[in-house]
Amino acid sequence: MAGDAIISLRGVTKSFGSHTVLEDISFDVPRGRISAILGPSGTGKSVLLKNVIGLLRPERGEIWVDGEQIVGMGEQDLYRVRRKMGVLFQDGALFGSMTIFDNIAFPLREHTKKPESEIRAIVEEKAGMVGLLDHMRKYPGEVSGGMKKRAGLARALVMEPEIVLFDEPDSGLDPVRVAYLDELVRKVQEETGATFFIITHNIPSVMRTADYLGVLFRSRLVQFASKEEMRASDNPIIRQFLAGRARGPIGMDEMADDETELEQELVAQEDELFGDDEPEIMTV
Question: What is the pLDDT of residues 244-261, one digit of tens each?
Answer without folding.
Answer: 777 777 765 555 555 565
